Amino acid sequence: MSSLPKCPQCSSEFTYEDGDNYVCPECAHEWPKVAAAAAEDVKVIRDAVGNVLQDGDTVTVVKDLKVKGSSSVVKVGTKVKNIRLVDGDHDIDCKIDGFGSMGLKSEFVKKV
C-alpha cells in the first residue's frame, strides 16, 4: 500500500514523487512535499455539533446505534469516557459499559 498522499485537486491515488514535489498523473497537478506533510498533520475530528474532539474526551451518544453482530442497542445519552481518536471509517475507539470495546463515528456523538 502506498504512503503517498492523494491528489488535493482530483483525489487520485496514483500520485508519485518527483524531486521535492508530488505529481498527479491524472490531472497533472504538482504540489510541494512540505505542503502535503503540513496538511496531513492538521486532521481535525469534530462531533455532531462541530466541537473539536481530542483523545481522552468524554462524549455522549446522540442517536440509538445498533451494535453489529448483536441484538442490543447503544441508547441515546450513553456517556462514553476516555475516547481515543483513530484513522479510518470509525474515527473513535472506546469502551462502553455493558458492550465492551467498539468503534464509533464522530457524527453520532456530542462532546460533554
From TrEMBL:
Alphabetical list of Gene3D superfamilies matching this protein: 2.20.25.10, SH3 Domains
Lineage of producing organism: Bacteria, Pseudomonadati, Pseudomonadota, Betaproteobacteria, Rhodocyclales
Protein name: Alkylphosphonate utilization protein
Location of the Protein YjdM C-terminal domain: 45-112
Domain Protein YjdM N-terminal: 3-32
Entries under PANTHER family matching the protein: PROTEIN YJDM, PROTEIN YJDM-RELATED
Family membership: Belongs to the YjdM family.
Stored Pfam families: YjdM, Zn_Ribbon_YjdM
